[in-house]
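Thread amino acids onto this structure.
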């Protein structure tokens, strides 16, 4: 297998692009794709300060790496969810990356704002963990960006994440979720910042390969509460389709954006106001995040121990794509 660019020995084959690359040319290809996405979708300019939400995983650290290398003005944001060893390790990965690149990193803990970390929130609310966690992350990203002078937040969502979300919403025909799914969520209110996903055209396998070939040290484990999540099943199903017919994942999601999303966009405009407590946007009096804090304070219950990492089920930890990418990279 030869590199499409230089004719040297290829380390990675990309079937959907009908191409193979050596390590250096793959990294250039990946960066070019990400930067072209930022430019074409008008996500941000080189002068605009961008807050990159980093989880310590491969996608968000790969994104930060690309933006630093391409000369964008970035700072990282790590949200400490307080989920035992998982949070401690992922925070350490973000801190090490920021130190190595001499890049600023903002740290915000859920416990500071909600009064309790995610395991206690989970015990108090009895909501599926990730709904409270997702709400907290979106709130903290927006609020931190506003308070610290960023007009845009970038996340590491990749093509697999977006296609799996789309599949989930389609299986439920959830029209409002379908309308909201876009790689650029414009700021429709002075208290909202733009949210963008520059890696949405790159697959999980490609981001894993980029992180690996760039020597990025990231946390391989997924959040222990994500185990058994339906999104993982959806990703597996899409990977089977991709194996049988390379390019189907990209076609599913990218053609949705081109041809179908407009059909779902809501016609009615929701009126946003300032939360009477915290000043962030809400459609009511008090925002969902402040209500979450109230609920946690009212019903404080001791949390159960955070589930331990199970080394025997790699497919449930998103590990498999990392291992596949690494194995292929080392293959002669
Ligand atoms: P996830 O929902 O865990 O798949 O994460 C999607 C994206 O959200 C990641 O690529 C990050 O950009 C961002 N993100 C997730 N967790 C955190 C966190 N703890 N702190 C900051 N950003 C995060
Ligand atoms: Fe949301 Fe784990 S509970 S990332
Ligand atoms: Zn509020």
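Threaded sequence (332 positions):
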């Amino acid at each position: 297998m030869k590199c499409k660019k230089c004719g040297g020995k290829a380390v990675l084959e990309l079937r959907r692009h009908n191409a193979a690359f050596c390590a250096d040319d793959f990294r250039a290809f990946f960066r070019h794709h990400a930067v072209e996405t930022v430019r074409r979708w008008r996500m941000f300019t080189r002068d605009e300060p961008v807050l990159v939400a980093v989880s310590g995983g491969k996608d968000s650290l790969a994104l930060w790496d690309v933006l630093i290398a391409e000369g964008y003005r970035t700072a990282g944001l790590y949200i400490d969810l307080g989920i035992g060893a998982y949070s401690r390790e992922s925070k350490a990965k973000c801190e090490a990356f920021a130190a190595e690149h001499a890049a600023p990193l903002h740290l915000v803990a859920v416990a500071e704002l909600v009064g309790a970390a995610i395991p206690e929130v989970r015990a108090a609310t009895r909501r599926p963990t990730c709904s409270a966690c997702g709400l907290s992350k979106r709130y903290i990203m927006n609020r931190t960006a506003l308070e610290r002078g960023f007009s845009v937040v970038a996340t590491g969502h990749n093509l697999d994440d977006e296609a799996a979300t789309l599949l989930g919403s389609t299986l439920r025909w959830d029209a409002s979720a379908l309308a909201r799914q876009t790689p650029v969520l414009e700021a429709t209110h002075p208290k909202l910042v733009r949210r963008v996903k520059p890696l949405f055209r790159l697959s999980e396998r490609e981001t894993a390969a980029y992180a690996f070939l760039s020597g990025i040290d990231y946390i391989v484990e997924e959040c222990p509460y994500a185990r058994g999540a339906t999104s993982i099943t959806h990703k597996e199903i899409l990977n089977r389709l991709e194996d049988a017919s390379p390019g189907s994942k990209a076609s599913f999601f990218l053609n949705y954006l081109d041809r179908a999303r407009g059909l779902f966009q809501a016609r009615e405009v929701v009126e946003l106001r300032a939360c009477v407590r915290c000043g962030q946007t809400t459609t009511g009096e008090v925002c969902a995040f402040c209500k979450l804090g109230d609920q946690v304070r009212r019903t404080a219950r001791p949390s159960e121990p955070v589930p331990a990492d199970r080394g025997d089920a790699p497919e449930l930890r998103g590990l498999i794509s990392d291992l596949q990418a690494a194995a292929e990279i080392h293959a002669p």
